[in-house]
User: Fold this.
Amino acid sequence: MIKDLVVNLGGGATPDITADYAISVAKTYGAHIVGVSFVYEPVIPGSLLGGIPTDLIEVQREENAKAAKAAVAYFETAARNASVSAETRLLDASIAGAADLFGRIARRFDIAVVGQAQREQGVSEELLIEGALFGSGRPVIIVPEIQKQGVKLDNVMICWDGSRPAARAIGDAIPLLERAEAIEVVVVTGERDKSGEITGANMKRHLARHGINIDIKRIAAGDVGVQTAILAHAADSGADFIVMGAYGHSRLREFILGGVTRSILKSMPVPVLMSH
Assistant:
């Protein structure tokens, strides 16, 4: 059961699509929600250190604070209008520091909600998604920038390849799957069988014991690749929510998203729940 969730608030964007979606999840489950807004430290290229007037740095810092406070104000109003129990946190951090901090904060919640990385804010949002996925140990819902409505679970699509991240995502998504009208487990044929369970038959029996009925659909990647096959099927089947494992590898202390995960996050048509 989802009892509390945390959402990263947009930088003063109105409306804040991600905040609205997270509030709809909280309302659906009668959960408490915490909105986190970061006041980012000014970004100064190393080649310009000492060459930028102090007053210009302060102006950027004030603009960042203004955007963060506007995001908080929007969230508080939206949560109040939805009659949802909510609170906010306004935190100072660097771009990299925010990703690490949000990941650690999310450990104390049932689920985290973040927005899809947008072109104008790509670096900070990509890092924050990675921080939530690989630093929290919790499931993360990523909301696409084209999202127009709150949580909808009429037609849920699960991506299954027999792997640990995929199994973790399904387990984490059970509170959502229990409310779904229809669920399709999609297996991309031709992928390397990671566990001997890739047919999905045993997963179907497992979910049935939770009272969750699914259909299994096998699709071929062909020459287009796994991510393209998944996205095409999501569009063709009218999926309104996707569940899948998040893949990545570590490089020193950083995590780098895997190719399929990155491609899905770049072109996602509907909200995606990912777990690692």
Q: What stands out?
A: The chain has a mean pLDDT of 88. The chain has two domains: 4-143, 155-275.
